[in-house]
TrEMBL record:
S-adenosyl-L-methionine binds at residues 115-119, 138, 165, 181. Residues 95-188 form the Methyltransferase small domain. It catalyses: L-glutaminyl-[peptide chain release factor] + S-adenosyl-L-methionine = N(5)-methyl-L-glutaminyl-[peptide chain release factor] + S-adenosyl-L-homocysteine + H(+). It is an enzyme of class 2 (transferase). Keywords: Methyltransferase, S-adenosyl-L-methionine, Transferase. One of its GO terms (molecular function) is nucleic acid binding. It comes from Zemynaea arenosa. One of its GO terms (biological process) is methylation. This is Release factor glutamine methyltransferase. Its EC number is 2.1.1.297. The lineage of its organism: Bacteria, Pseudomonadati, Pseudomonadota, Betaproteobacteria, Burkholderiales.
Length: 274
């Protein structure tokens, strides 16, 4: 597509080949304008530098790069988050995990978010429940740096630890709730080669095994760090709910159940530590 100096904002919103929302996001990012600014300045024409910048952004999107990586931001649970290709892009499906966590968190409860990535889950819980004490861990130093910046951006307090699952936790660390959205796509799944997933960090998507190994590790290790009656909540794949329920039952969690996301898919499974 040819974008030139002199093209108006209004004309480009109608001509750009993406869906209207993505057209608006790219235009706003290229021009440094808010949604309101795009409306109030719709007759403004682009400079040569702006046209070149928009052309480059558009080509990246047409090549398949996720728009969140292009603009470096994604909204999650009503909050703004910086994102880079070091972390997964926060998705609306994961908001279910946050809602379930908030409902089950006691006053001044202690929460552990395992594999925090961008920090979306931990920060969202901390923002909704400022009384809570939140700890978040990840094995990736780059992810933790980004998560810290997101906590600061949203003005919440979260303790961040670099850890390969439970390794950095002392044996006496106890929590009133543990949540996780771990890698759960099986190695070799064709979805890994399509869409946005092509650009996201592979180690955050797949366990390089059957898709259940991280879930097994969390379910087995969480009991030592959960207070009696505390919940473990884990997000998983669209076809894994029965396997995860069986896994939690095997480790003698009680009240084991799954919850459906907005499209009706069983997306989160959890149980209580007896």
């Amino acid at each position: 597509m040819n974008i030139s100096a002199g093209d108006s904002i209004a004309a480009l919103q109608a001509r750009l080949p993406l869906d209207p929302l993505e057209n608006r996001i790219l235009l706003g990012h290229a021009l440094g304008l808010t949604r309101v600014g795009l409306i109030t300045q719709s007759d403004r024409t682009l400079t040569a530098d702006e046209a070149a910048r928009l052309t480059e952004l558009l080509q990246r999107r047409l090549n398949g790069e996720p728009i969140a990586y292009i603009v470096g931001e994604r909204e999650f649970y009503g909050l703004p988050f910086h994102v880079t290709d070091a972390v997964l892009i926060p998705r609306p499906d994961t908001e279910l995990l946050v809602e379930l966590a908030i409902e089950r968190l006691p006053v001044r409860g202690r929460v552990l978010d395992m594999g925090t990535g961008s920090g979306a889950i931990a920060v969202a819980i901390a923002h909704a429940r400022p009384d809570a004490v939140i700890t978040a861990l990840d094995v990736s130093a780059a992810a933790l740096e980004l998560a810290r910046s997101n906590a600061e951006r949203n003005q919440v307090r979260v303790e961040f630890l670099r850890s390969d699952w439970f390794c950095a936790l002392g044996a006496d660390r106890q929590f009133d709730l543990i949540v996780s959205n771990p890698p759960y796509i099986a190695d070799g799944d064709p979805h890994l080669a399509g869409g946005d997933l092509r650009f996201e960090p592979v180690s955050a998507l797949t366990d390089h095994a059957d898709g259940l190994s991280a879930l097994r590790t969390i379910a087995a290790g969480a009991r030592a760090h959960l207070m009696p009656g505390a919940w473990l909540l884990m997000e998983h794949g669209y076809d894994q709910s029965a396997a995860v329920r069986a896994l939690l039952a095997h480790h003698q969690y009680t009240e084991v159940q799954s919850w459906r996301d907005l499209p009706g898919i069983e997306r989160v499974t959890g149980g209580r530590c007896a």
